[in-house]
Amino acid sequence: MSGHRLTLLLVALTALVGLAAADAEYNVVDYGARPDGGADSAAAFQAAWGAACNDTGRSGSRPVLRVPAGRFLLSRAYFKGPCRSAGVVVAIDGNGTVFAPPVVDSMAWIMFHHADGLAIRGGTLDGQGQEYWACKKDGRCTGQGPRTLDISQSKGVSVEQLTLLDSKNVHIAIFDSTGVTVEGVRIVAPANSPNTDGIHAQLSRHVRILNTTIGTGDDCVSLGPGTSDVLIRDIKCGPGHGISIGSLGGQAGEEGVRNVTVERAVLTGTTNGLRIKTWGMPNPGSVTGVSFSQVTMHRVANPILVDQDYCPRKVDCPGKSSGVQISDVSYEDIEGTSTTPVAVKFNCSATNPCSGIKLRNIRLTYRQKRPAQAKCRNAGGSASGEVRPASCF
Ligand SMILES: *[C@@H]1O[C@H](CO)[C@@H](O)[C@H](O)[C@H]1NC(C)=O
Ligand SMILES: *[C@@H]1O[C@H](CO)[C@@H](O)[C@H](O)[C@H]1NC(C)=O
Ligand SMILES: *[C@@H]1O[C@H](CO)[C@@H](O)[C@H](O)[C@H]1NC(C)=O
Ligand SMILES: *[C@@H]1O[C@H](CO)[C@@H](O)[C@H](O)[C@H]1NC(C)=O
Ligand SMILES: *[C@@H]1O[C@H](CO)[C@@H](O)[C@H](O)[C@H]1NC(C)=O
User: Are residues 208 and 239 in contact, defined by beta-carbon separation less than 8 angstroms?
Assistant: First the structure.
């Protein structure tokens, strides 16, 4: 064989191998999606998902649902599995934005259900919540509104490098799922937008939220009943209501929250810092094995807060005490400023006092330099290292 022929053969072989190794791609534009923001692209997204989800894939490769650069109007998406592939990769171009119409008639705008092995990467999801918030504020809209991204009953999911803007309700909801990692994500909504939690997890295990920046009108992260084995690390939060466990105990039969680690967080201008919140009602429940460490607070109204008397509408709870037992919660290396004099408040249940609370190396001041206070009610624990304000146990 001549050298020339050999080279051609090698080129052909390389191309074949490359083709075989490449993941199959399903580009929404090929299914009729409009990158000019014009007509609704829902049917195209749905068809591309169906094809990708049906792709059996080759060993180790996952089909890719690609959203290229452009602005795509999506009225609603219900991406349902189980898929025949080992999982679908939803790759949105860095200059690709998927945006919602002003009204979405569903609990979720973009829903992934039974989507094991799903990976979502890049791009922007714009919930266009402005009209809906106004409608909520003047009482015309009484519902909660659709969550932007809902991941439900799925295993082994990752969400990376995604930007979420102006959701009508919660930005990312993780429900009844196992092994969900959110990493390098940015969530942005105005401080006065109602119920726009950044990330809410419920009934889920092994959830990791890493290197993520969240500024919204509600909790940056909230963990609901039945959530366990959670790692939240390298988080920037603000504006918003802080990092919250709860509300818990609002209903009978709730599962507890356990094994939660929050480390290396910076909270700026938030109403709460690290909060555990339960309804002032006798429904049983539990929070145990929580560790907060290396947290910096800038101008936070309530930096460390346990509130077991949550009852915003003052019905059903006044005069009752929470049935949720809070135990084994540690706070270590927490520093910064509080905008209110009480920087540390443990207001626990009279019938289920908090136990095993540990404070170590706490340096919180009221504004820049004034000493702050700590207040306890039905709370037991210990303090070590430098603890300012002095502990109230
Ligand atoms: C998936 O494949 C099945 C069987 O091959 C077919 O009946 C179904 O229509 C496909 N679904 C989609 C959404 O393409
Ligand atoms: C977006 O598009 C601009 C202009 O075409 C380009 O300079 C930039 O690199 C793109 N960014 C990404 C993340 O693709
Ligand atoms: C954190 O996320 C940002 C934004 O996505 C990214 O640019 C940066 O590289 C990430 N940092 C690390 C340490 O992963
Ligand atoms: C606690 O959760 C972390 C993070 O998911 C996990 O790595 C660890 O194994 C869990 N610990 C226990 C005792 O279950
Ligand atoms: C603490 O909780 C009790 C009810 O258990 C409530 O009456 C009181 O107002 C709360 N105190 C503060 C300072 O929040």
Answer: no
